[in-house]
Amino acid sequence: MTIPDMTVDIGGLKLQNPVMTASGTFGYAREFEHYIDLNRLGGIIVKGLSLEPSKGNLPPRIVETDCGMLNAIGLENVGIDAFIQDKLPFLKTLCPPTIANIYGKTVEEYAMLAERMEPFDAVKGLEVNISCPNVKEGGVAFGSDPKLARDVVKAVREKTTKHLMVKLSPNVTDIALMARVAADAGADALSLINTITGMAVDLSTRRPKLANVTGGLSGPAIKPVALRMVWQAVQAVKIPIVGVGGIMNATDALEFMMVGATAIQVGTANFVNPGSTMAIIDGMQAWLQKEGLNDVKQLIGTLVTN
Amino acid sequence: MIAQDTIVLWNQPAAPGYYRMGLACATGFDTARPGQFVMVRTGTEATPLLRRPFSLLGLIREGDRVTGIEILFKVVGKGTQRLSRCREGDRLSVIGPLGNAFLVPETCRQLILVAGGVGVPPIRFLAQSMLEREGGFSRCVVFVGGRTKDDLVCITEFDLPGFLLDVSTDDGSQGNQGMVTRSLEKALDAGPADLICACGPSGMLKAVSVIALERGIPCQVSIEAMMACGMGACLGCAVKLQDDETRYRHVCVDGPVFDAHRLAW
Ligand SMILES: Cc1cc2nc3c(=O)[nH]c(=O)nc-3n(C[C@H](O)[C@H](O)[C@H](O)COP(=O)(O)OP(=O)(O)OC[C@H]3O[C@@H](n4cnc5c(N)ncnc54)[C@H](O)[C@@H]3O)c2cc1C
Ligand SMILES: Cc1cc2nc3c(=O)[nH]c(=O)nc-3n(C[C@H](O)[C@H](O)[C@H](O)COP(=O)(O)O)c2cc1C
Ligand code: FES
Fold first, then answer.
1. Do A271 and B93 touch (CB under 8 A)?
2. What is the pLDDT of residue A1?
3. A24 to B235: CB separation less than 8 angstroms, yes or no
4. Which CATH number fits domain B2-98: 1.20.1440.60, 1.20.58.100, 1.10.940.10, 2.40.30.10?
5. Which pLDDT belongs to residue B134?
6. pTM, rounded to two decimals
7. Would you tell me which residues 36-65 of chain B have a C-beta closer than 8 angstroms to some C-beta of chain A?
8. Is the ipTM of this complex over 0.90?
9. Does the domain at residues A8-56+75-196+219-299 carry the CATH identifier 2.60.40.10?
10. Fewer Cβ within 10 Å of end Cβ, chain A: N or C?
11. Rounded mean pLDDT of A279-285?
């Protein structure tokens, strides 16, 4: 039997297959080089980067919950300069495109990050994380305010010629509105969802289980929410959607594509099984063959609802 | 380090609530050292989702080859409960060996080991690996402490040539009555030491570290943190050092063994 065509195009960026790694769950890729063949990935999205190194939140930063986990890492990262100097040379040697996930505390910071990344050809795209608080606007998350979201995406668009993916926050009332705002502001693709704000309590100590009190929920628990939001975003905009949230295996990944995602990202599953991405690629391919489909693109948006 | 399916060789109660498990590993552990740990997937369902970290208790050898590992765990929640129900022949996915190890310099002649409660595994592995050391030590004492005699797990394992075993329980049900740190202080008053290596509850480790610092003795401790990945990817296992306010270290890759005098307790 012929091997199905797994290539997809997420709005100007071609991937050899739809399976990417979700930011913050894959380090800077090198962490996984002993476990998987990095060159088989569809794309590599690195840990969220800021202008300056950031030390992140006080521990404890993670706690397991039913069918998922909460994290409050606080966007600890080496900073964009150390990324370019220490991490990029290795990423450059790999075939899959490197996508830099960026976040700022102000619109200007986002713009500066995009500008700073522009000369580095090894970075094929930017993923803009808008799920963080805007310090100038009293801590409102960029991703939950349409105007702030538009400002950020526009500012980044002006500074970059790279592929621009905007990562939407699920902590909003109307995801379709946020999707339209990001698309209209110049995004080439949208990725969703980021983690859902949550909380866990230790009854015996009367304390929150995370030092930060609240954290972001990820893993199988959020898959139904992610699927629903991807579905709504697909209806709302014409640009490609990248599905993220609770994808643990090939079945999950295929469901997201059936709902309309052009590609997917694997997050928490990387912790559970560092080989998850490989198993997902193989499993998707096997399913397509079994179904007699010779191109993964034939699956996108084929959900039957009537 | 690699991820592999291992086969349970044995899983035996070692004390009330404690189990000692042997796992056959096809490969990967030939160079594993005391202090290193593994991440074990306790089942295949979505809960418990994440792997659980366990220190190596020792290696299983056949001739020159390492054919497996041993861990020792206390049942404290869902994951360890599941592990406790594993039987011979079951399969468990294991990643390891992970993290750094205790480092006993060649010049060390007087070594003190301290294990509290579930801190026994890496200390037992360390004690055992020290037997192979040429020239040996002039003094080697292992202090083991627990709340009651039921928390003294695998202490017969410290019945090693050249090692002196000193046992304490909080309630006096076995050995000296009181904290293990009291016995440690007494011993240090009686004679010097070149290095202290310890593992156990963080309160005990802190006390040991203070005792060592007061006497100017180097001290290495194996510490715990909540972990999601065990391989430096999630940045969940943060720990702060005294002399570096600018960033956190990560227990899974920079540890679990740290210079006790550098930790911001
Ligand atoms: C490097 C390292 C080595 C360890 N070695 C051993 C060992 O050799 N033997 C052993 O019995 N235990 C060891 N632990 C602790 C062990 O990992 C936890 O007891 C275990 O993960 C609990 O899982 P659970 O699902 O049974 O409990 P859960 O239901 O997850 O939690 C029960 C309780 O255990 C605590 N806990 C959960 N995860 C951890 C963790 N990663 N570290 C510390 N406390 C935790 C929780 O805060 C909670 O109070 C080690 C931990 C680390 C970080
Ligand atoms: C420990 C951890 C760290 C994360 N860090 C980032 C980050 O730096 N930037 C970002 O945009 N998303 C981050 N995320 C969100 C993931 O990329 C992903 O959107 C989310 O976890 C949902 O997918 P999952 O259920 O497959 O994990 C992080 C998630 C986790 C669990
Ligand atoms: S446990 Fe994930 S970085 Fe240490």
1. no
2. 67
3. yes
4. 2.40.30.10
5. 77
6. 0.96
7. 41, 46-51
8. yes
9. no
10. C
11. 98
